[in-house]
Amino acid sequence: MLDKKINILGAGLCGSLLSIMMAKQRYSVTVREKRSDPRKNHGSAGRSINLAMSAKGINALKHAGIFEQIEPLLMPMKGRMLHFQDGREELQPYGQYDHEFIYSVSRLRLNHLLIDAAEEIGVEIKFQHTIESFDKEKNVNFKSNEGGYKLTAKNLLVTDGAGSMMRRSFNGSSPILPQEDILPHSYKELTIPADDNGSFKLTEKALHVWPRGQFMLIALPNPDGDFTLTLFMPTKGENSFDRLKNNHQIQKFFEKYFSDILILIPNLIEQFQENPTGILGTVKCKHWHLNDHFLLIGDAAHAMVPFHAQGMNSAFDDCVVLDSIVKKYDTWGEIFKEFEIKQKKNANAIQAMALDNYIEMRDGVLDPKFALKKELSFRLEKDFPTYFIPRYSMVMFHNEIPYSVSYQRGEIQKNILNELTINADNIDSIDYRSAEKVIKQELTPL
Ligand SMILES: Cc1cc2nc3c(=O)[nH]c(=O)nc-3n(C[C@H](O)[C@H](O)[C@H](O)COP(=O)(O)OP(=O)(O)OC[C@H]3O[C@@H](n4cnc5c(N)ncnc54)[C@H](O)[C@@H]3O)c2cc1C
Q1: Tens digit of pLDDT for each residue in 138-188?
Q2: I need a surface site. Which of 150, 309, 357, 416 has the fewest CB within 10 A?
Q3: Which residue has the least CA distance to atom 48 on ligand 1?
Q4: pTM
């Protein structure tokens, strides 16, 4: 029989949702969290201010029975609004069907509601309890406002995020053997305020992208009429954060590449100088668990770069998968093992797709063949729906398709699209008869 007491470490997005699922399975759950109660202070809950939520995230909220509470926070975004350097704008729909939206959601408000829902069903959350280390005797050492203490590591669910202290205590050692690959690009968040009437200055029905080759800006709407704008660019070198130090450099850079933004943000230079620059990276581990002592979940196990907007979504998917395995076994060691087998290949796949998507968003969309391939992939999806679903749609709209399958099929589909468009400039010049043959030869029905 499994011990009916569970400890979760970290009350971020993954830990708080997981605590709800475990409490619903009648576990007595205690969560320990480094921060003070985020409902009582106004700072950001962590990194980005808002997040894009898609099928796997929504499925997890439904699975936990809390979607109705969260739904009012969700702001639908139909596509990417591209802002080119010459001032042209173009809306590229994400999908082709009416239900194919992704949603912008405030990280802070989402985290508040998850914590509220957890406490309502009896989860105990201890704020300002910080993991300091994991020792050789297999204890987790904590610092808290009541002093330091130890917790024996037994069936611990570890959700302490991308900078996980639990994971890092295994740097260079088995079985976790973590690896952190820092991207040579960083990010900075800025705010496009609402206009004088409290309305959005850009359409709020889209995720805005200003692609500029080696760097880009993106903006997601917030419920109060403002947008969170994020600049992603190299950390060093030409056109890098390193070269944007003084007010003059910042002003000149925005005048050259993003002149429309200068009009939208009156205090841009001030914001740029004050807001921190964040690093981005991919975390991989050889293993995610140590026997039945602990399991790493969410960002702690597999943080990724944010360009497919799937970090939270995949962390929520982890919660669903773990919740579905828990009843199958009598020991946590077996549960942790099956979880790792099920989710590791999916984490590897979405991490690779997230890195790919950075190149697509900042550069790929500028390729004239990009729009043609997109148009062709929608047409193939319409005509051969069981064979061909665009990779982006598989990841964002199809909860039932695991990331590993989206990745494998996506690679095959990429070759098919390249082959069919190699000598074509528009959809009518594609040899469409050969398309069906190639698709049915290369892909199995889903
Ligand atoms: C710029 C940016 C944009 C992003 N955009 C998206 C997006 O659009 N869509 C998407 O799906 N994902 C996005 N993500 C990823 C998403 O933020 C993460 O995947 C998600 O927050 C993971 O949840 P988590 O609970 O694993 O980690 P976190 O949400 O980071 O939670 C970890 C928790 O552990 C606590 N903690 C940390 N250290 C300790 C300690 N020593 N002791 C105790 N507690 C501790 C932290 O305070 C925190 O509450 C983005 C990330 C970034 C950086």
Answers
A1: 999 999 998 999 999 999 999 999 999 999 999 999 999 999 999 999 999
A2: 150
A3: 12
A4: 0.96
Domain of 210? Answer: 183-280
Residue 96 burial (C-beta neighbours within 10 Å; 0-12, 13-18, 19+): middle
Residues 405 and 346 grouped into a single domain: no
Condensed to tens digits (0 to 9), the pLDDT of residues 223-259 reads 999 999 999 999 999 999 999 999 999 999 999 999 9
CA of 12 from ligand 1 middle (Å) equals: 6
Question: In this structure, are 306 and 410 located in the same domain?
Answer: no
User: What order of strands is seen across the sheet that includes strand 216-221?
Assistant: 89-93, 79-83, 206-211, 216-221, 227-234, 179-192, 277-284
**DSSP-based three-state secondary structure for 133:** strand
Based on the domain organization, do 254 and 233 belong to the same domain? yes
Residue 438 CA to its chain's centroid (Å) = 33
Task: Name all residues whose Cβ lies below 6 A of ligand 1.
Answer: 9-15, 32-35, 46-48, 51-52, 130-131, 159-162, 165, 187, 298-300, 306, 309-313, 315
- The residue among 226, 258, 280 that closes a domain is 280
Residues 254, 83: contact at Cβ < 8 Å?
A: no
Q: Which residue has the tokens 């749609």?
A: 393
User: Which residues fall within 8 angstroms of residue 147, CB to CB, at 6 or more apart?
Assistant: none
